[in-house]
Amino acid sequence: MIKLHGASISNYVNKVKLGILEKGLEYEQIRIAPSQEEDFLKISPMGKIPVLEMDGKFIFESGAILEFLDTIFPQTPKLIPEDPWEAARVREISTIIETYLDIPARRIYLPAAKISPEIVEEVHSTLVKGIKALQRVVRFSPYIAGNVFTLADCSGFAHLSVLDEELRPFYPNNHPLDLFNGWKEYFVFMKTKAGPALVEKDKQILKKILARAKTKIG
Q1: Which CATH number among 1.20.1050.10, 3.40.718.10, 3.30.420.40, 2.40.30.200 corresponds to the domain 84-195?
Q2: Is it true that the peptide bond before 74 is cis, omega within 30 degrees of 0?
Q3: What is the domain partition of the chain in residue ranges?
Q4: pLDDT attached to residue 218
Q5: Which residues, given as ranges, of the chain have pLDDT below 50?
Q6: Which portions of this protein are annotated as coiled-coil regions (predicted)?
Q7: Is residue 75 packed enough to be buried (19+ CB in 10 Å), middle (13-18) or exposed (0-12)?
Q8: What is the reported pTM?
Q9: Is the dihedral of CA 204, 209, 215, 218 positive or negative?
Q10: CA angle at residue 168 from 162 to 159, to 5 degrees?
Q11: pLDDT digit string, tens, across residues 111-120
Q12: CA–CA separation, 197 vs 145, rounded Å?
């Protein structure tokens, strides 16, 4: 059986989880946090999540995991289209979301982030540029890259849902995602699907648990 190591609060864990669910694969989630412990570094050299375990072997990095699953389970729905041009577009969308939106946003929404008004404004400009680029390549018909669920949806739903929620306190009146035509409708549509709905539910449950724990500690 597939084992997915990682917590449902992580957008990269959820990216992989979305792919597993779309493929209809049987799996077990091992809920662990990132770690720099030597035993964990043996299976994830950067100490990050997610990690996929199968047949006693391990794969780290979300993109590598999903491409592996696409290869080893060819009878399940493909996350990477067979057409080379469509495959490239799917990877383009995923890369824009992760490189030009998620990474810059982490400068302000992660708990350990050092935030100043200047950084908030700088990140806003970067995100707006990324959103404009993303708008040029998405399709929303109804999925983010066309008429079938792909790797781009794994990235899109997992990352953009986090950014929409976590960045609201910083940009209550000028959230970059509000400039992204089709995003709100897409988010609503995706939550009508069993996989994305489960991922969102698990994420929100864990967020509430962590918030309560933080309140008790504080």
Answers
A1: 1.20.1050.10
A2: no
A3: 2-72, 84-195
A4: 56
A5: none
A6: none
A7: exposed
A8: 0.95
A9: negative
A10: 15
A11: 776 799 999 9
A12: 19
Q: Tell me the three state secondary structure of residue 5.
A: strand
Beta strand 2-5 with 27-30 is: parallel
Maximum Cα–Cα distance across the chain: 53
- Partners of residue 58 on adjacent β-strands: 53
Q: Which CATH architecture has domain 2-72?
A: 3-Layer(aba) Sandwich (3.40)
Residue 197 tokens, joined: 């709905």
For 44-96, the pLDDT digits (tens) are: 999 999 999 999 999 999 999 999 999 999 999 999 999 999 999 999 999 99
CA distance 93 to 182: 15
DSSP element (H, E) containing 59: strand 57-60
